[in-house]
Design a protein that fits this description.
Blueprint: E1 2-7, E2 12-22, E3 28-36, E4 42-48, H1 51-67
Antiparallel strand pairs: 1-2, 2-3, 3-4
């Protein structure tokens, strides 16, 4: 899932990417990457016991980012 936020007046051009990936031992990871569009960003992986828990976390992050103007 890719989200972007742009505001020309504030020179703000950001992206936020989320992906759910399976782990080697049955866990599920929520990989997040964020930064300025056109530049390498930061990455973080949070691990969850079930795919449903990872999807719930992704949904909650998506809603939080939508409140901040990401589309």
């Amino acid at each position: 899932m890719d989200l972007t936020r742009s505001d020309r007046e504030a020179n703000l051009h950001r992206y936020y990417r989320m992906e759910i990936v399976p782990g080697l031992f049955g866990e599920w990871g929520l990989v997040r990457e964020w930064g300025r569009i056109g530049w390498p960003g930061q990455m973080r992986t949070d691990w969850y016991a079930t795919e449903a828990a990872a999807k719930d976390a992704r949904f909650n992050l998506h809603m939080a980012k939508a409140k901040r103007g990401y589309q």
